[in-house]
Design a protein that fits this description.
The chain is an alpha/beta fold and 268 residues long. It has helices spanning 37-45, 64-75, 94-107, 126-135, 158-175, 191-196, 208-219, 243-260, and strands at 14-15, 24-30, 52-57, 83-87, 112-115, 141-145, 153-154, 187-190, 224-228, 231-232. Helix content is 37%, strand content 16%. It has an eight-stranded mixed sheet, with helices on both faces. It has a two-stranded parallel ribbon with strand order 7-10. Helix 5 packs parallel to helix 8 and helix 7 runs parallel beside helix 8 (243-260). It is globular. It starts with 13 loop residues before the first strand and ends in an 8-residue tail after the last helix.
């Protein structure tokens, strides 16, 4: 179980102001993303829909956080904060980074909270479609899906494509969740979803975190929709994937499903 230290409000960890006019924020967890972070921030800022950005950096040795701080001087003004930064003490896991980001986003009153990677495997242009699915179509969780309309993955070795595809099929089979891409990390939540799910009881910290969040969103009765995307493997920097991440997901899904049989979910 992870309990976010965000509520300590340690000023050494938080680099931002409280002023913001936008209703949507994109959370980007980073660890050694100096090659990508400026480009991804610029791409998001240039979109026709205004998204604020929260970078959650796990004390990257390559100085990713310092790059973000410099960019804050460009994108933030005395009346408007577009670029936010949370600095953490070390590499604490993808799931905990998002949980801290969720708490931050809710405290700052955002209505729509989006997730994406820093490495351009997720196309920033697709953020608009994910947002519109929630804001205009009444969806509670929109999912940028690699497998909703076939297999839409570019530059992955066939072995990894098959592993990812059948991992999602495995999760569907065990849990019954009606989602083709259960491990997707490119999503948009309505605020109400994150207010309903007990975030500090989330167990997974690796990529299985994404499975658990979708599973709980579904179990609480929220509406999920997959938005087809094309996923492109990173061209700069190094992947954070490991055997341990897959092991956590494989075993954890069974445990999560069994435990859900004995729990009552208050339908939203």
């Amino acid at each position: 179980m992870y309990r976010s230290p965000f509520w300590n409000n340690d000023p050494a960890r938080i680099s931002t102001t409280t002023k913001s006019l936008n209703n949507a924020i994109v959370i980007i967890p980073t660890y050694n993303e100096q090659e990508n972070i400026t480009l991804i921030i610029e791409a998001i800022i240039s979109l026709p829909k205004d998204f604020d950005i929260l970078v959650v950096d796990d004390n990257s040795p390559d100085g990713t956080a310092n790059i973000v701080k410099n960019l804050q001087q460009t994108y933030n003004t005395s009346t408007k904060t577009r670029l936010h930064l949370l600095q953490r003490a070390g590499k604490l896991g993808l799931g905990t980074a998002y949980i801290e980001g969720f708490h931050y986003a809710m405290q700052h009153h955002y209505d729509f909270i989006l997730e994406m990677d820093a490495d351009f495997s997720h196309n920033p242009n697709d953020l608009v479609n994910l947002y519109l699915s929630c804001s205009e179509l009444g969806v509670d969780l929109s999912i940028g899906s690699r497998y909703a309309s076939g297999v839409n993955v570019v530059n992955w070795p066939m072995g990894r494509v098959l592993l990812s595809f059948f991992a999602s099929k495995y999760v569907q089979l065990i849990t019954g969740i009606p989602v083709h891409d259960t491990t997707a990390g490119f999503v948009c939540y309505r605020r109400k979803v994150l207010e309903t799910i007990p975030l500090d009881e989330i167990k997974f910290v690796g990529y299985a975190f994404q499975i658990e969040m979708k599973f709980l969103t579904w179990k609480y009765g929220f509406r999920l929709k997959e938005v087809p995307i094309i996923f492109t493997d990173r061209t700069r920097g190094q992947s954070k994937m490991s055997v341990g991440i897959f092991k956590e997901a494989f075993l954890g899904v069974i445990q999560m499903t069994i435990q859900s049989w004995f729990k009552k979910y208050v339908i939203a």
